[in-house]
Design a protein that fits this description.
Radius of gyration: 24 Å
Order of helices and strands: HHEEHEHEEH
Shape: globular
Helix content: 40-55%
Number of strands: 5
């Protein structure tokens, strides 16, 4: 009887220890899952950025380089449309709209108002907004409202810190939170596109 009671006590002690350890084990499992998700997220974005750079590097006109990069972002990431605008002395000029847009919306008519493209070329900063509903400064923007945008990435195309163009990738769905590495990736993409932009301009000047 005493042996049975001891075994029962040992079982109860083991059960209590298991209960105590369970939250820690679950936390570790959750942390590992999050790390794997972040690595997968970074890998997808990195591949899209590299593909955009490679596609742009093969083009012979500035517009084609921007469109090639935009098409890669559209096809590889969770966006439904990409707007590309060139920055000139008089402001932004819409070059192209790739992907799916509402049929009754003319984005070119809304480019002159405050929007992520104008903000990104003025600030020379990448804009990453995973949920417009939580970003007060973008909730009443005519362009985003007309295009039913819920999340977006907007990057400046820069050469020697001077803005040349902007690329806006949009989605009607909220996006998982962006990571600091995403900012660096899209900033680098914009800088590399600016180098291609300048090289094409020099080549055209020679020939």
């Amino acid at each position: 009887l005493e042996a049975a009671e001891r075994r029962a006590g040992q079982v109860q002690d083991a059960a209590r220890e298991a209960d105590r350890q369970l939250p820690m084990l679950l936390q570790k499992d959750l942390e590992q899952t999050l790390v794997m998700q972040q690595l997968s997220h970074q890998g997808v974005h990195m591949q899209a950025g590299l593909a955009a750079m490679q596609a742009a590097s093969r083009q012979v006109t500035q517009r084609a380089a921007l469109e090639a990069a935009g098409q890669e972002l559209l096809s590889r990431l969770c966006f439904t449309a990409v707007l590309i605008a060139e920055y000139q002395a008089g402001g932004l000029q819409l070059l192209d709209a790739l992907g799916e847009l509402p049929a009754d919306v003319n984005p070119a008519a809304l480019i002159g108002q405050r929007n992520p493209l104008s903000e990104t070329v003025q600030s020379r900063q990448v804009l990453l907004v995973p949920d417009v509903a939580k970003a007060v400064e973008w909730q009443n923007t005519p362009l985003l409202h007309a295009l039913e945008v819920q999340s977006f990435v907007c990057l400046p195309v820069l050469y020697e810190h001077q803005p040349l163009a902007g690329i806006l990738a949009i989605s009607p769905q909220a996006h998982p939170e962006f990571l600091p590495e995403d900012y660096e990736l899209f900033l680098r993409l914009g800088q590399q596109l600016g180098i291609f932009f300048h090289q094409i301009e020099e080549h055209q000047a020679i020939y």
